[in-house]
Amino acid sequence: MSDQNPNGQDSNEPENEEPIVRDKRRIDPETGKVREPADAGAGSEGDTSDADLSHEELVDVGPAGGDEFESLLSDDELDVLSGQATADQVAAERLADLQRVTAEYANYRKRTEANREIERERAIGDTVKGLLPVLDDVDRAEKHGDLEEGSAFATIAAKLRLTVERLGLKPYGAPGDLFDPQIHEAIFQQPSPDVTVDTVADVVETGYQLGSTTVRVAKVVVAVPA
What we know:
Blueprint: E1 21-22, E2 59-60, H1 67-71, H2 75-82, H3 87-128, H4 132-143, H5 152-166, E3 169-172, E4 184-192, E5 199-205, E6 207-210, E7 213-216, E8 218-225
Parallel strand pairs: 1-2, 4-8
Antiparallel strand pairs: 3-6, 5-8, 6-7
């Protein structure tokens, strides 16, 4: 005859035990830190395998092993949680990256705008080159006194010059300028006791510049020291 406890239950029957919950997540939800892996040899004494604990009900809490949770975090966030880096260090690195990208973008914009302006000048220069012979004729007419003030020819010449100036085309080259082989073409040299350096004595053909681009160099007569 089996013994019965005061509640009328057989004392030989095993009591109902609560299931044991094992949290296998690598990130501790309470501390937010990465859990160190358990030593393979530790816990051998007094520890019972899952097969031996027939009365235990193994329950996984959350995503298996916490891998899905870890995939939501960046490497920097994991370093902060594990104590390998501080939040201030990560913030400083991110600020440095942002400043570098901002500087690179600013330089890119400057280069792009500079290249765009150069292409614009080239396009306008190709257009106005067809007008240079007309401008040369206007200059010759002015030297010969054919542009009388108030005449129709003088009015047309003034409108033509104003139009090309609005496009950014500027004439250069005048007697008395210092000779510069970069923007002047010497077609003749004449010794002169009145100069100590190479100087433009006369302009045969006016030069034109468009911004930083030389559309045509000026053809000049150069006075050199005697």
